[in-house]
Amino acid sequence: MHRKSTLDVRIKSIKQETATIKRFTLQELNGSKLPPFSGGSHITTYLPKEAGALERSYSVFNLSEPGLIEIAIRLAKPSTGGSDYWHHRVTEGDVLKISYPKNHFALSFQAKHHVFYAAGIGITPFLSMMADLAEKEQSFELHYTAKSKEQCAFYDHLKKTYPGHCHFYFSEGEKPKRLTVNLLKNHRIGTHVYFCGPEKMILEFTNAAKSFGYPAFNVHYERFAPPVKKDSVPFGITLKKSGKHFIVPTEQSLLDVLRQNGIDVPYSCRVGGCGTCEVKVAEGEIDHYDSFLTEDQQRSNRAILSCVSRGKGNLVLDI
Fold it and tell me: What residue stretches are annotated with the FAD-binding FR-type domain (predicted)?
């Protein structure tokens, strides 16, 4: 999504949730309430840098007073810039720009029961989802894995707020317990499952759900980063209407190259999940890395999500 409109917010407080995760509470500058959001929403934050801004998106929740927005950020090693900036440069009282809340990971209101599977920092979108469902007295449960209780962000809050709904799996310690895909076999018909965590976990659980017979529309997941592309190579693009030709290098996305050359392609999630950056393709073969297009749409090679997917050879874009 373009930065057509942003909000200036102040860092009200910073709390160390675990050794590697900090919670940041954001407030409106004039003391009024920040925009409301639905379960699963996120914001894009714009961090100042020498040229332009560093854009990073984070799931939002609110465990504090009404009218605030909170995000939790794990310090990544190595960091591509975002988490390092938040952990080491942002302090209470700082003013930053954020987008309005957006939601590409919404709850399904066709579900008879919601089951959330979280690994590590993947807990964050489920904090707002569970709050929404609890308020409406709807059925849900959480399965949450971390290395230990000490590294399990929001453990005390979850145990206190949702007794009987939360199941924890710690892979280290005296009695290690692992979160496995076999749990998917235990849910009743009408259940919708939601996955959030590392790419390996998401792939394992989505593939298992498919193999166990879950309908595609009952399976939901959210990525924090674009999927890893194996053996990525440069490819060419030709714009059908102007005849202009560009090369997309290995380290850049098609979206980056188009926007650098004045092609105003809208975007939002940058991880292939929302469909905002879709571009029509007239000719060529595509390596699809998105989770938005259907299998039939991907096989047709008539559309590409420019933030993550790549061409094989040369693509002719219908723009």
Answer: 4-108
Tell me the per-residue pLDDT of 100-153, one tens digit each, with 9 for 90 and over.
999 999 999 999 999 999 999 999 999 999 999 999 999 999 999 999 999 999
Domain boundary among 73, 99, 125: 99
Give the range of the structural domain holding residue 30, as residue numbers without chain letter: 6-99
Q: What is the spatial distance between Cα 10 and Cα 175, in angstroms, rounded to a whole number?
A: 43
pLDDT at 2 (0 to 100): 41
- The answer as to whether 203 is a domain residue is yes
Of 99, 134, 162, the residue that ends a domain is 99
Residue 70 to residue 63: CA distance in whole angstroms: 8
Cα(309)–Cα(254) distance, rounded to whole angstroms? 8
Q: Is residue 108 part of a domain?
A: no
HSE (side-chain half, CA atoms, 13 Å) at 192: 18
Question: Rounded distance, CA 102 to CA 269, Å?
Answer: 9
Q: What's the length of the chain? A: 319
